[in-house]
C-alpha cells in the first residue's frame, strides 16, 4: 500500500531530472539566453536614444525597439524559463514525466516557438509597434495578436502536462503531502490558467476582429480591464518561480533547512486568491471605473502584499538561524556568515535586496492618491526593473547556474562560479544606478516611454538629462552583464563532463513532518474561492462597461 510509504521512500534527494525531460528543459533554456541577448541589446540602445547619444539606423523606430524589448524579455524569456524550470522541478521531485506529459511539454514548446516567430516578424516589419501591453487604440497586424495567442496556448498545453504530473503523483501517494516544490508549480499553473482567460478574451473577441477589419471600433476601457485582469497576475507568474527557489532551494544551498512547509504553502495559496482581483490598480487614473471599485481593488492589492511579507520573514529566519548556528552572536553579524563566495546563493540574494525597495515601490504605486504622482512616469519603469528586472531575473540566473550543469552532466567550476559572481555584481551595479535614476526622474515628472529628443532637449527636459545619462551608464553595465551571462551559458553547457554532476538542491523544511493542512490541497475549494473573489472585484465594473455610456465609448458593446 502506497499509504504506508515513508516520505523518504517517495522522494530521494539524489533523484535527478529524467534524461528525456532534461532535453525538453534545455530546449526552453536556449530561448531564455537568446531572448536575453536580443532584449538586452534593445535595452541598451533605448537608454542611448533616450539620452540623446544615438539615432537609430535603418529607419528603426524607438517604439518599435521598445516593443521588441518588452515582448522578448517580459513575455518570451520569462515564459520559456518558467515552463522549463517547472518541468525540471516536477521531474526532480515527482519523478520523470510520462510519455504523454512530455509530449504535451514539447507541443507547448513548439506552439510557443511558432507564436514567438510570428510576433517577432511583425515587430521587425514595424507592423506591431504597440508595446508589450498592446493598449488600444494602438493597433497591430492581426498576425501579431495571433502569434501572442499561440504563445499563450502553448503555455496552456505545457502547463496541462505539468498539472497531470502533479495530480498523478497526488493520486499515487494518496494521503501524503505532495512535495512542496510540485505544489508550488501547481499553484502557479492554476493561477496562470485563470488569469490568461482575460487576455485570451480580449485578444480573440476584440483585437483580432478589429485588426482584421471585421469591426471598426474597440471598447478601450474593456480591453484594458481584461488585459490587467491578466497583467497583474502575470507579474506573480514571473515572481513565484523565484519564490520557489527562495523557499525550497536556497536553504539547501546554505546546507540548512527551510523555515516552514506549511507557511510556504499558505503564502502560495494567498497568491492564488489575491493575484487576479487586483488588476484595476493599473487603471486608477482611468475614467469609466467607479471610485468604489478602484478602492476595493486597492484593498485587495494590500492583501496580496501579505504573502510577500511572509516570504521576507521566512528568509530572514533561515538566514539568521544559519548564521547563529555558525557562531554569530550580535544583532546582525549573522549576515557576515552567509556564503558570500557561492554564486548559487549570491545571485538570488542580490535579487532579494532589490526586492526590498521594489516591494516598497509597489506599495507606493498601489496607494490610491500616490499613484497619481507616479502613474505614467518613468518611476514605474524603475519599479518594474527592480522587481522583474532584478529579483526575478537574478534568481533565474541563480537557478540556471546549477540546473544547466545538472541537466548536461557537468559541474560548476571555480571559473564559472566566479563569472556568475561578476555577472551578479555587474548587474546589480548597472540596475542599481539605472533604476535609481528612473525613480528620481519619475518623481520630477519625467514621463515613461517618451524620448529626450521628443522634448527637444529644452525646458523641463533639461532637468532630466542627468538622469537620462545615469540610465545610459546603467544600461551599459547591464549590457556588459548580459555578455557575461551569454558566455557563462555556453561555458556551463559545454566544458568537461563530471562523474558526479551538479546537484539540484532541494531543501527539507523545519516542519517537514508536521501534519499537512488538508484544505490547502483541496483544489475545488481553492478554485471556488479564487473565482468568488474575482466575481466580487470585477462583475460590477465590467458590467458597467457594457451598460453605461462612458465618454468616448458611447454605445460600444464588446467592440
Ligand atoms: Fe508592480 C506596475 C504594485 C510587485 C511588476 N509592476 C508594475 C509594472 C510591472 C510590475 C511590470 O499598484 C508595470 C506595468 C506596466 O507596464 O504598466 N507591484 C505592486 C505591488 C507589488 C508589486 C503592491 N510588480 C511587483 C512584482 C513585479 C511587478 C513582484 C514583477 C515581478 N505595480 C504595482 C502598481 C503598479 C505596478 C500599483 C501600477 C503603477 C502604474 O500606475 O502604472 C507587491 O507585490 C510588492 C510586495 C513585495 C514586498 C517585498 C518583500 C521582500 C522580500 C525580500 C526580502 C529580502 C531578504 C534579504 C530576506 C512587500 C521577499 C534581505 C537581507 C538583508 C540582510 C537586508
Ligand atoms: Cu499590478
Automatic annotation (TrEMBL):
Residues 29-554 form the Cytochrome oxidase subunit I profile domain. It comes from Corticicoccus populi. Coiled coil: none annotated. Keywords: Electron transport, Membrane, Respiratory chain, Transmembrane, Transmembrane helix, Transport. The chain crosses the membrane at residues 29-49, 61-83, 104-125, 145-168, 180-208, 228-250, 262-280, 300-322, 343-364, 384-407, 419-441, 469-490, 525-546. Gene3D superfamilies: Cytochrome c oxidase-like, subunit I domain. This is B(O/a)3-type cytochrome-c oxidase subunit 1. It comes from the Bacteria.
Amino acid at each position: 500500500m502506497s499509504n504506508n510509504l515513508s516520505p523518504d521512500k517517495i522522494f530521494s534527494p539524489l533523484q535527478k531530472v529524467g534524461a528525456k525531460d532534461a532535453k525538453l528543459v534545455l530546449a526552453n533554456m536556449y530561448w531564455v539566453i537568446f531572448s536575453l541577448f536580443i532584449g538586452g541589446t534593445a535595452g541598451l540602445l533605448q537608454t542611448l536614444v533616450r539620452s540623446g547619444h544615438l539615432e537609430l539606423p535603418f529607419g528603426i523606430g524607438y517604439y518599435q525597439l521598445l516593443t521588441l524589448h518588452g515582448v522578448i524579455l517580459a513575455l518570451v524569456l520569462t515564459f520559456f524559463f518558467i515552463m522549463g524550470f517547472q518541468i525540471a522541478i516536477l521531474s526532480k521531485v515527482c519523478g520523470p514525466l510520462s510519455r504523454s506529459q512530455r509530449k504535451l511539454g514539447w507541443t507547448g514548446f513548439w506552439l510557443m516557438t511558432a507564436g514567438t516567430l510570428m510576433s517577432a516578424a511583425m515587430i521587425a516589419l514595424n507592423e506591431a509597434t504597440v508595446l508589450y501591453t498592446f493598449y488600444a487604440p494602438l493597433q497591430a497586424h492581426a498576425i501579431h495578436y495571433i502569434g501572442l495567442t499561440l504563445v499563450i496556448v502553448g503555455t496552456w498545453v505545457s502547463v496541462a502536462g505539468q498539472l497531470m504530473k502533479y495530480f498523478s503523483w497526488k493520486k499515487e501517494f494518496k494521503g501524503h503531502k505532495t512535495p512542496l516544490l510540485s505544489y508550488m508549480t501547481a499553484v502557479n499553473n492554476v493561477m496562470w490558467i485563470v488569469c490568461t482567460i482575460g487576455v485570451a478574451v480580449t485578444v480573440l473577441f476584440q483585437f483580432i476582429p478589429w485588426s482584421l477589419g471585421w469591426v471598426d471600433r474597440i471598447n478601450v476601457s474593456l480591453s484594458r480591464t481584461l488585459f490587467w485582469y491578466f497583467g497583474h497576475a502575470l507579474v506573480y507568474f514571473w515572481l513565484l518561480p523565484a519564490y520557489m527557489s527562495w523557499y525550497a532551494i536556497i536553504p539547501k544551498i546554505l546546507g540548512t533547512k527551510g523555515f516552514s512547509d506549511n507557511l510556504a504553502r499558505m503564502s502560495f495559496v494567498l497568491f492564488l486568491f489575491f493575484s487576479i482581483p487586483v488588476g484595476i490598480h493599473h487603471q486608477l487614473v482611468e475614467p469609466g471605473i467607479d471610485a468604489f471599485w478602484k478602492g476595493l481593488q486597492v484593498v485587495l492589492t494590500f492583501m496580496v502584499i501579505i504573502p510577500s511579507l511572509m516570504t521576507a520573514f521566512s528568509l530572514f529566519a533561515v538566514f539568521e538561524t544559519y548564521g547563529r548556528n555558525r557562531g554569530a552572536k550580535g544583532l546582525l553579524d549573522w549576515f557576515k556568515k552567509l556564503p558570500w563566495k557561492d554564486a548559487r546563493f549570491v545571485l538570488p540574494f542580490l535579487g532579494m535586496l532589490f526586492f526590498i525597495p521594489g516591494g516598497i515601490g509597489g506599495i507606493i504605486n498601489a496607494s490610491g492618491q500616490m499613484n497619481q504622482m507616479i502613474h505614467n512616469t518613468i518611476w514605474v519603469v524603475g519599479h518594474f526593473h527592480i522587481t522583474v528586472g532584478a529579483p526575478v531575473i537574478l534568481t533565474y540566473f541563480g537557478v540556471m547556474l546549477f540546473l544547466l550543469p545538472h541537466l548536461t552532466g557537468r559541474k560548476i567550476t571555480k571559473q564559472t562560479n566566479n563569472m556568475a559572481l561578476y555577472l551578479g555584481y555587474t548587474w546589480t551595479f548597472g540596475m542599481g544606478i539605472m533604476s535609481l535614476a528612473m525613480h528620481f526622474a519619475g518623481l520630477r515628472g519625467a514621463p515613461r516611454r517618451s524620448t529626450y529628443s521628443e522634448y527637444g532637449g529644452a525646458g523641463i527636459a533639461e532637468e532630466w538629462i542627468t538622469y537620462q545619462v545615469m540610465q545610459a551608464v546603467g544600461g551599459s553595465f547591464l549590457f556588459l552583464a548580459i555578455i557575461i551571462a551569454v558566455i557563462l551559458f555556453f561555458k556551463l553547457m559545454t566544458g568537461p563532463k563530471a562523474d558526479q554532476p551538479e546537484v539540484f538542491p532541494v531543501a527539507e523544511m523545519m516542519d517537514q513532518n508536521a501534519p499537512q493542512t488538508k484544505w490547502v490541497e483541496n483544489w475545488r475549494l481553492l478554485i471556488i474561492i479564487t473565482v468568488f473573489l474575482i466575481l466580487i472585484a470585477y462583475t460590477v465594473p465590467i458590467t458597467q462597461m457594457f451598460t453605461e455610456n462612458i465618454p468616448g465609448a458611447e454605445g460600444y458593446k464588446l467592440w
